[in-house]
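Researcher: Next entry in the queue.
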Amino acid sequence: MTSAALHLTAPTQAERRLLHLAEHLTAYVERRIAARAERREIALDLLREQQARRQDPRAVEHLLAQVGLPRR
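Model: Structure for this entry, 72 residues:
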C-alpha cells in the first residue's frame, strides 16, 4: 500500500513534460521581455539625444540680431 501511495504523489510523465514545457515558455517570455526593455531603453536614449540636439530657431534669430546682421 505504501508504494501505491508514493506512486500517486509522483508526477506522471505527462505532468513532467508539461512542467518542462512551462519552464521553456517562461524562459522564452523572460528573454522577450528583457529584449523589449532593452530596445525601449535604446529608443528612449535616442529620443533624448535628438531632443537635446534640436535647436531653437528663435535663438539663431536672436544671435543674428546681436551681431547686427539682418534677419533671415
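Model: The chain is about 85% helix and 0% strand.
Researcher: Noted, moving on.
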